[in-house]
Design brief:
467 residues; alpha/beta; seven-stranded mixed beta sheet; five-stranded parallel beta sheet; 14 helices; 24 strands; globular; binds 1,4-dihydronicotinamide adenine dinucleotide
């Protein structure tokens, strides 16, 4: 049996690529070593975390918010088993959905670990050790990423006391104390889940700010909000040891600028200091595939240096985001099928699913200053938005950054309720090269949160109405 395309890895990059290639008439197989499809995102990442984020938000709302709406329900009680069942059911529905879609599109699924023998040959080793070789014209590597530990710190994950995000999604009870190492997306999202459910959460972060890469003004606002919510933040603090103590975990850290080390103990420690490209056992070195700091080197058409081998998603350059991998999967499938697939890296939204949410697309003010690009900023707060007030979600703002000379929108940053949904219109606008005036002159329904986006675009030209 010979294929046009064998995809290795069935995460959001790989399965989307396989389906698109099959739609375009290619004969496709996908190799996956997990028992279920969807990769980290669906099994132990985006989807289960969003199930817990939503449930914990409802819990906090029941306890603190509902009385303000005249809804009196008494003190909420957490049913931990039901909480985890909601998460597991959500994951099951999603991974089964992917299995259905692969079948519907006639993609051959092969269970086992894939390795590249040579261009055109993928060896698959099943769980029972049996091997088969798939012959193919093209190979797409979409094997994603794995947890990275802080440099120089030996971490032994037991996923009960010393956890990666995988363990922190499946704790068997709410920890009294949780230490989170790393104030990135994973640390703040999962830290928020367990804080809302009652844990005392302390975050230790190396940098002097949280959420590296996000707009500085948004981050400052968010940092204050997190502290108001009761999260303790130790910034400019370098973790030097993570150990198991008598009862829980122990974390030792010291000021980055030098000074005395301190040790904190907690029931659970979550290590969220980033992820690394996962290429273990793929046989890339033997196949002669060029790498750069663990990532597969590709050209603008996703081609590795060996003919017939392509790579997408977390194993290549760019942000480690499911939707970036998906778009690369679509593009590479189209390229292999002889079309002109393309990804616009200037317009990849990023969302942090905390309360409030944070969403961004395009350049930050810091980026524009560093690049010497003159820009105008328009800002509008949700306190001046009627719908936000009615929903008691008036924290935060929208900021639109537009080129000073052309008015073209270069970046949009939102901190506020449903920011992750609101950012989509900014992405569409930017994909079409739209200006702040285009956005300002587009009719937005009233009363909606999206009016704040329109008003921020109007504010670029200082002609906002409601402020
Ligand atoms: P991250 O790279 O976002 O943050 C890691 C943080 O750990 C950084 O702030 C870093 O300065 C800090 N750190 C590193 N070494 C340290 C040390 N020794 N002591 C103290 N702090 C230290 O990584 P994270 O949160 O683990 O996420 C991994 C990947 O998954 C990211 O690429 C992220 O974009 C992606 N992701 C995206 C989500 C979303 O889009 N909502 C959700 C979850 C993950």
């Amino acid at each position: 049996m010979s294929y046009d395309l064998v995809v290795i890895g069935a995460g959001p990059g790989g399965y989307v690529c396989a389906i698109r290639a099959a739609q375009l008439g290619l004969k496709v197989a996908i190799v996956e070593k997990r028992k279920t499809y969807g990769g980290t995102c669906l099994n132990v990442g985006c989807i289960p975390s969003k199930a817990l984020l939503h449930a914990s938000e409802m819990f906090e709302m029941a306890g603190h918010e509902l009385p303000h709406f005249g809804v009196v329900v008494g003190k909420p009680k957490l049913d931990h088993v039901a909480l985890m069942k909601h998460k597991d059911d959500t994951v099951a529905a999603n991974v089964n959905g992917v299995a259905f879609l692969l079948k519907k599109n006639k993609v051959t699924t092969v269970q086992g670990a894939g390795a590249i023998l040579a261009a055109g040959q993928v060896e698959v080793t099943a769980e029972d050790g049996s091997k088969q070789v798939l012959e193919t014209k093209n190979i797409v590597i979409a094997t994603g990423s794995d947890v990275a530990t802080p440099p120089g710190v030996a971490v032994e994950f037991d996923e009960k006391v010393i956890c990666s995000s995988t363990g922190a999604l499946a704790l068997d009870k709410v920890p009294a104390k949780l230490i989170v190492i790393g104030a990135g997306v994973i640390g703040l999202e999962l830290g928020s889940v367990w804080r809302r459910l009652g844990a005392e959460v302390t975050v230790v972060e190396y940098l002097d700010r949280i959420l590296p890469g996000m707009d500085g003004e948004v981050v400052k606002t968010f940092q204050r909000t997190l502290e108001k919510q009761g999260m303790k933040l130790h910034l400019s603090s370098k973790v030097t040891a993570v150990e198991k103590g008598k009862k829980g975990g122990k974390v030792t850290f010291e000021p980055v600028a030098g000074g005395e080390a301190q040790t904190l103990e907690a029931d659970v420690v979550l290590v969220a200091t980033g992820r690394r490209p996962y290429t273990d056992g793929l046989g890339l070195e033997a196949a002669g595939v060029a790498m750069d700091r663990g990532r597969i080197v590709i050209d603008e058409h996703f081609r590795a240096n060996v003919a017939g081998i392509y790579a997408i998603g977390d194993v290549v350059r760019g942000p480690m985001l499911a939707h970036k991998a998906e778009d690369e999967g679509l593009a590479v499938a189209e390229i292999i099928a002889g079309q002109h697939g393309h990804v616009n890296y200037e317009v990849i939204p990023g969302v942090v699913y905390t309360t409030p949410e944070i969403a961004a697309v395009g350049a930050t003010e810091e980026d524009l200053k560093a690049r010497g690009i003159a820009y105008k900023a328009g800002k509008f707060p949700f306190t001046a938005n009627g719908r936000a007030r009615a929903m008691r979600v008036a924290d935060g703002f929208v900021k639109v950054l537009a080129d000073a000379a052309t008015d073209r929108v270069l970046g949009v940053h939102i901190i506020g309720h449903a920011a992750g949904e609101l950012i989509a219109e900014a992405a569409v606008l930017m994909e079409f090269g739209g200006s702040a005036e285009d956005l300002a002159r587009t009719c937005h329904a009233h009363p909606t949160l999206s009016e704040a986006v329109k008003e921020a675009a109007m504010a670029v030209d200082k002609r906002q109405i409601h402020m």
